[in-house]
Specification:
The protein has 127 residues and is an alpha/beta fold. The chain contains three helices and seven strands; from the N terminus they run βαββββαββα. The strands form two sheets. A four-stranded mixed beta sheet has the order 3-2-5-4. A three-stranded mixed beta sheet has the order 1-6-7.
């Protein structure tokens, strides 16, 4: 049973590992929309200040993944799956560092089963 709040596809994992080799430590942040949109943004760890109201969902490939607190309430019962797509012509349309390599991270989600959500709650209460 996989109760991690955030996971990553093998394809996205490959891109993250490539970016880590080039940029060092990374951090992901998914904002609540508006100017930033709702795609997960990838930054060099020291280049982004994580807003204090954001929630750490977990880690992917050793990188912290944060989400806007209001979005967290919406996704509380869901697992976020980080994926990547090849993005032709996207260069310069985002501050997220994968864009320069012709990729864009995106998220999908799935609702936890009742059994998974209960296990997740028990796990979080232990912390």
């Amino acid at each position: 049973m996989d109760t991690r709040r955030v996971t990553v596809t093998p394809e996205a994992s490959e891109v993250i590992e490539m970016l880590k080799k080039e940029h060092g430590e990374l951090v992901f942040n998914q904002s609540g929309g508006c100017c930033d949109g709702t795609a997960p943004m990838c930054y060099e760890k020291g280049d982004f200040y994580v807003p204090s109201r954001n929630v750490k969902m977990g880690e992917i490939c050793g990188c912290e993944f944060f989400i806007d607190h209001e979005q967290f309430e919406y996704f509380r019962h869901s697992q976020i799956i980080v994926d990547v797509k090849k993005e032709q012509g996207a260069f310069g349309n985002s501050f997220s560092i994968e864009i320069d390599h012709g990729y864009q991270f995106l998220t999908r989600s799935r609702i936890f089963t009742d059994e998974e959500y209960l296990a997740l709650k028990e796990e979080e209460e232990k912390k």
